[in-house]
Amino acid sequence: MKFSPQVNYIKCKNDAEEYRMFYTAWGNQENVDKTLLCLHGLNRNSRDWDFVGQYFAARGYYVIAPDLVGRGNSDYLSNSDGYNIPFYVGDMFRLIQTLDLSNIHFIGTSLGGLIGMLIASNFNHPIQKLVMNDIGAEIDKRGLERISAYTSIQLEFNTMKEASDYLLSISQECVTLASEIFNFIVQNSFQKNSNGKYELKRDVNLSKSLAPNISSNENIKLWDIWEKVNIPVLVIHGTESDILISETIDKMKQIKNSLQLLEVPDIGHSPFLYSEEHFIIIEKFFNF
Predict the structure, then answer these.
(1) Which of 115-125 are b and which e, b meaning 16 or more Cβ less than 10 Å from the residue's Cβ?
(2) Is the dihedral of CA 67, 81, 101, 117 positive or negative?
(3) Looking at beta carbons, which pairs linking 192-201 to residues 24 or more positions away fall under 8 Å?
(4) Is the dihedral of CA 171, 172, 173, 175 positive or negative?
(5) Per-residue pLDDT averaged across 138-159, rounded?
(6) Which residue, 49, 97, 116, 251, could crosslink 108 as a Cys pair with Cβ 3.0–4.6 Å?
(7) In this structure, how many other beta carbons lie within 10 angstroms of the beta carbon of residue 109?
(8) Which among 20, 77, 19, 68 is positioned nearest to 47, based on CA atoms?
């Protein structure tokens, strides 16, 4: 059965302003009793989850994937101070409360996985199981510097071919993808701006939140947060990732020996989730 993506929004606010956060959903919330909440990476948007949405909606989930503020269809902020993780976490709690989501499993890629980990570290949080896609309790500075370099600029392209070539140059995970999968990502990664040029579907000002971390010479360490996570966790690891390295995973296992791991060979940060092979493993983790 084919499930068409449904688009809607909720109203959110931070200390400075109100804004709309859009979300894409698959399935019918009225007819199911379990939710899969999916959250994209730093420069991405909710359409990264189309393949996940189709697969799990067909298996009885209401699948919902928000566009973090400043990405996709969500509003861009007038005050870039609002582009920070505590506000993103707050938006996720607002989404859960507003839509009365229950029986929640969570998949987050990169920044999305980090937000999931932070939610799961809270007392009395609503997540039952967590999948963290190529992110962990320590973020390698090399990868953060690489991502920051292209996040801080908003290039314009005359053609979709130029945009496609650019996306391939900055996205480690796209190198080995089949052409039809990569083309899908390209079509949902760019929008036309007021100049009639193609640009990434995100506010370039969101990069300002990275500045304090880039100025440091150390990795971002979140071990105190990881120690507070007391639900089952599956980590997906692109073996060539420069964000999540094997030493971090080993240490995470030492702290939480129930941690499950899915290694995706020959892929950098971060594996794009479209393969039924991987969905079966995730589904088994959810059902265990």
Answers:
(1) bbbbbbbeeeb
(2) positive
(3) 193/156, 195/156, 197/156, 197/157, 197/158, 198/156, 198/157, 198/158, 198/159, 198/160, 198/162, 198/163, 199/154, 199/155, 199/156, 199/157, 200/43, 200/154, 200/155, 201/45, 201/71, 201/72
(4) positive
(5) 94
(6) 116
(7) 28
(8) 68
Distance of CA 14 to the CA centre of its chain: 20
Beta bridge partners of 24: 7, 65
Identify whether the C-beta of residue 27 lies closer than 8 Å to the C-beta of residue 62: yes
Q: What is the pLDDT of residue 215?
A: 58
The conformation of residue 288, written as its DSSP 8-state character, comes to -
Sign of the dihedral defined by the CA atoms of residues 171, 112, 203, 47, in that order: positive
Is-contact 78 17, C-beta < 8 A? yes
104 SS3 class: strand
Residue whose tokens read 């298996």 = 59
3-class SS at 230? coil
The answer to whether the peptide bond before residue 74 is cis (omega within 30 degrees of 0) is no
Q: Is the pLDDT of residue 213 over 70?
A: no
pLDDT (mean) for 112-135: 97
Q: On the CB side of 282, how many CA atoms lie within 13 Å of its CA?
A: 25
* Residue 244: closest CA among 107, 142, 168, 135: 135
Tokens of 148: 């920051």
- What does the buried/exposed string (b/e) look like for 190-206 if buried means 16 or more CB atoms within 10 Å of the residue's CB? beeeeeebbbbbbbbbb
Among the ranges given (28-42, 53-67, 103-117, 211-225), the one the predictor scored with the smallest mean pLDDT: 211-225
Q: Are 280 and 273 in contact (CB under 8 A)?
A: no
The tens digit of pLDDT for each residue in 159-207 reads: 999 999 999 999 877 878 999 999 999 999 999 999 999 999 999 999 9
Q: Residue 205 to residues 28, 151, 152: CA-CA distances in angstroms?
A: 35, 9, 7
253 φ, ψ to 5°?
-65, -35
